[in-house]
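[job 4471] stage=fold_predict status=RUNNING
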Amino acid sequence: MLTLSGITKAYGDRMLFADATLQLNREDRIGLVGPNGAGKTTLFSIILGQEPPDEGEITLERGMSFGYLPQENAPVADETVVELATGITPEYIKLRRILKAWDTNHPTEALHHEDIHDDVHDRFNELGGYRLEAKAKQILAGLSFREKDFERPAREMSGGWVMRAHLARLLTQEPDLLLLDEPTNHLDLEALLWFQGYLKSYPGAILVISHDREFLNQLVGSIVEIRQSRLIRYRGGYDEYLLQREAHEQQLVAAFKHQEREIGRLMDFVNRFRAKNTKASQAQSKLKQIGRMDRVEAPSSDARELDFQFPQPERGGQRVIKLAGIHHAYGEQVVYRGMDFQAERGQRIVLVGPNGAGKSTLLKILAGVLVPQSGERTLGHNVKAGYYSQYRVDMLNPERTVLEEGLDTPQRVTEQFVRTLLGSFLFRGDDVFKRVNVLSGGEKSRLALVKLLLDPPNLLLMDEPTTHLDMSSIDALAYALDQFEGTLIFISHDVYFIRALAKDVVHVNAGLLTHYPGGYQYYLDKTKAVSERAGLTAGTASHSTARARSSGPAQRLNPNQRQQAGGDADGSGSRKDQKRLEASQRQARSKHRKAQEEKVSHLEKEIHDLEARQAELIAELEKSETYEKPGAAVAVNRELVGVQEQLATLTPDWEQAATRLAEME
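[job 4471] inference complete, writing structure tokens
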């Protein structure tokens, strides 16, 4: 379908790709990962033909179609939302407008317009007609658009909503290859879960750049990492990629150590005997042997990682914040009516719910940046709130430099301290003199975090804090927040980040707040159980109603019939039957629990044996003798990869089995 062969690309002295290769087949699902600046978006530009490689070639299947979603700033003209979503060609939009204008101006003849302008109607149908529009509307709804927004001009909507409309256009169009650059950045959690499910059955191939590891785990079948100017492909999702990369690095370290030892041994011989006539030729031979070696590069990371922690804030009161009787509306749209909320010291609360439910509004009211139309907001004793906006530009002055923004803090700090902190957030050297308005999304996110650290709150309110951060930065942020002793309330669409931090979930919908006192999995389990009970109740009720309707008038039972139906007259027979049933159920539970214990024990033994074998193989690779036997190192490497693949499969099985056993107990 698509082949990249020997691709080389450099900007001045900076080499992005050197002899890189990649093969994409139909229905492939590939995640493209690497640190910010590694060249992910440049690779997309090369594939799309927007940028030529310095060397190498791209081979495409004849007639292949592309669909590309940039990370941000997709263009918008005068289309409505539904026109943008159905905009497979300008011609389709033009014909749709002609037909719509005709229907508006000739309402009584609307059903017969094909008789009046057959060519327009026929061509419109050739391009997909109203079937295409129905499909686009279904996709727009899945991406959380409301029906009343379909005919709104797209330019009236925020950049995030415009990006969603462009995403809907690509899904409606269904090109052979989807190239998606951070497609989840502009989605709320519920839209993301819908989008994730939709892509699983997408008929074409997908190459996606994403910093959302849960999204990658759920969607892709392989990961391509940009590392040291190469494209390295790993089988499986993101978690499997991490395991395989670690194994690969261990192999490289072992091979590098062995080669260094071998070179040292040869050089010892050269240094000892190069001056002796009888040994000079042998010493020269050893030097040539070193020169012929295919040198193993020491493993190194291209990534620059954040290194920071939140300063521990002053201790506040037990009750951190309370909202009482909050009423707020935007025009005629009422968001909250009499809403109450409170948080206590040390809580980790994630706000979830459909788009437009009021999550960001609630966070702004908690932060004090939005004053409700009625109701009270009360901060606890010694509580100081800090707000991390979804729109980083709201927190930053675009005309200032990075250093000037850092120095703009109520705390008394030196320039050296600010520069040190900026350096730990990857603003080094002349980077601190960049103006905010030229920073990338990731750089603005990091600078906004610096601002919070320079004036640390004990109530931290964060709206989509992971947007534009790469995976190592998300890990660093999650770790720092886990050590943070204050109160955290946040909104996120990153399931990995939510699972790492949330201890409470508050579901926001139609102005109502529902509290789930547990992590994200607890929330999922509870909402699933409620849905299943609701479905079961509805099903039982309809079944009972149908049975009552079909059975006719109820029949009266005579005393003998009643005794047979209900057991012995004194109930003793019924009690005996109940005891026998309970004993039988206990035996069945015991049998199932024993079987589950055996399953867990068996998996633990398998994993233990595999881990022991893995350690043996790694130790084998570090021995110099392994490389002296022809083919031995290759065989050991092959077995090691097989062992690690088995571990990657068995470990989730063990976790599931152990969880099931814990539930039984």
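[job 4471] summary: DSSP finds 21 helices and 18 strands in the chain.
[job 4471] exit 0
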